[in-house]
Write a structure and sequence with these properties.
The protein has four domains: 62 residues, no CATH class; 87 residues, PDZ domain (Pdz3 Domain, Roll); 171 residues, 2-enoyl-CoA Hydratase, Chain A, domain 1, CATH 3.90.226; 53 residues. Strands 19-16-15-12-11-10-20 form a seven-stranded mixed sheet, with helices on both faces. Strands 1, 13, 14, 17 and 18 form a five-stranded antiparallel sheet that branches. It starts with a helix and ends in a 5-residue tail after the last helix. With 456 residues, it is an alpha/beta fold. Helix content is 39%, strand content 22%. The chain has 13 helices and 20 strands.
């Protein structure tokens, strides 16, 4: 067997020696500063061809060179980083279809963390969110297919499909005793990217929740702020925001910073070295801000929170962000195949990178409720009013049960209508205490307003 292998290797060596030498010679002529010398490249090309020939001749199942090369390329790209990928003819065609037409999805953003397919965040109002998927969930299976060794692109392709069709995800969740099986029905994903709300406890504080960075974020932010022109402080909620368009992230920061580099990208090629700078027009540098982040905040939301932190324009509250700060481009290889290749990394104004590091908040606050106790010695106005009405009903012999019911129903109906109308635009005190990150963020913002902090 050993002798036979040597013959095969010798054949492969003779058939590819010339081509490998030309490649190596070209590399040496092109640049003498590359990490590998021409000799090292020649030896590497020869070794690859030798192994290819052995596999083609000796592997238990019949295979061919094209198939082996494609598998080798996929392995090569996956081992570069979790976002780079080789797309064969079918995958490249699927990508083209996805960018041109509608498709059904779950409304879920995923990434690789420590080699595991991890949920960055489910988007608000989507099937994934409604089904109970949470940021940090590790996806073990998509239907019956294990995700071990699966690329992000492969997983996304499996999760997308015809609207109305079902998919089953098996996930591991922190503190859950065993894996969870979650059934989700695909749908056309339509997302409202910006939600504006006022606080019931302080109407002059504006809460802005950005769920993802689509092409209308900056426009929606400006409109929301203009509609609340008496705002004294802003809570910007970027929790579970998986990112999106870079220009919208830059535009959002530019609303609050008048000068300096908001974010830069740097790669090996000088063409990839770009700086995105703030401009002074229509900039608000005075309104105090607090930004909320967590492990589901990624990419564009990390650029926004990190830049505002570096410019000392905002206090960042919550948990450490996901850590996705790299730039990918699709490079066609011929007409039918392509590489999705990481070509640069993003850098914040201070020069620090986001990739694999994330943004660490100024004030670390874990998600949860804030317990509170009511003083039993004091009656609140609402309690007092109800108590007095009950006492009046007891002594008012002229009041009939019918009239009382009519009045009560009318009041309840009006209150219910009012609550429904304000449900999407008011954050109640109870809601505030159920969200520790938001509650502490609001308290910090109130302190900034009082002390007139927040100026750039």
């Amino acid at each position: 067997m050993i002798k036979k292998s040597k013959k095969i290797i010798a054949t492969g060596l003779l058939s590819t020696l010339t081509a490998a030498y030309l490649f190596g010679g070209f590399a040496e002529a092109k640049s003498t500063t590359t990490q590998s010398t021409a000799k090292e490249k020649l030896e590497a090309y020869i070794k690859f061809t030798q192994i290819l020939n052995v596999i083609e001749k000796e592997y238990v199942d019949e295979t061919n060179t094209t198939e082996l090369i494609n598998k080798a390329l996929k392995g090569l790209m996956t081992n570069l980083d979790s976002h780079s990928n080789f797309m064969d003819t079918k995958e490249y065609k699927d990508l083209t279809v996805q960018t041109k037409g509608e498709f059904g999805g779950l409304g879920i953003s995923v990434g690789m963390k420590d080699g595991a397919l991890t949920v960055i965040a489910p988007l608000e109002g989507t099937p994934a969110k409604k089904a109970g998927i949470k940021a940090g969930d590790i996806i073990l299976k998509i239907n019956n297919k294990a995700t071990i060794g699966m690329s992000i692109d492969e997983s996304v392709k499996l999760m997308r499909g015809k609207p109305g069709t079902d998919i089953v995800l098996t996930v591991v969740r922190k503190k859950a005793p065993k894996p969870l099986t979650i059934k989700i029905t695909r749908a056309i994903i339509k997302i409202q990217s910006v939600y504006a709300k006022n606080l019931a406890t302080d109407k002059n504080l504006l809460y802005l929740h950005v769920t993802s960075f689509d092409q209308k974020v900056v426009e929606s932010m400006k409109k929301a702020i203009a509609d609340h022109n008496d705002t004294k402080g802003i809570i910007l909620d970027l929790r579970n925001n998986p990112g999106g368009l870079l220009d919208q992230a830059v535009g959002l920061v530019n609303m609050f910073v008048k000068k300096g580099v908001i974010v830069s990208q740097k790669g090996r090629s000088k063409l990839e070295n770009v700086e995105y700078k703030a401009t002074p027009e229509n900039t608000d540098t005075k309104t105090p801000m607090v930004v909320l982040v967590n492990g589901g905040s990624a990419s564009a939301s990390e650029i926004v929170s990190g830049a505002l932190q570096d410019f000392n324009r905002s206090v960042i509250v919550g948990e450490k962000t996901f850590g996705k700060g790299s730039v990918q481009v699709v490079l066609p290889i011929g007409d039918k195949e392509a590489l999705k290749l990481t070509v640069a990394r993003y850098y914040l104004p201070s020069g620090r990178t986001i990739q694999a590091k994330g943004v660490t908040p100024d004030i670390l606050v874990h998600y949860g409720e804030i317990p509170r106790k009511q003083d039993p010695l004091f009656l609140k106005e609402a309690d007092l009013k109800q108590h007095l009405e009950e006492e009046l009903q007891k002594i008012d012999s002229n009041a009939t049960t019918k009239s009382i019911r009519v009045d009560t129903n009318a009041t309840d109906s009006n209150l219910t209508l009012s609550a429904d109308q304000n449900k999407s635009s008011i954050i109640t005190e109870d809601q505030l205490y159920k969200d520790a990150q938001l509650k502490i963020g609001v308290d910090i913002l109130k302190a900034l307003v009082i002390t007139h902090k927040g100026k750039q």
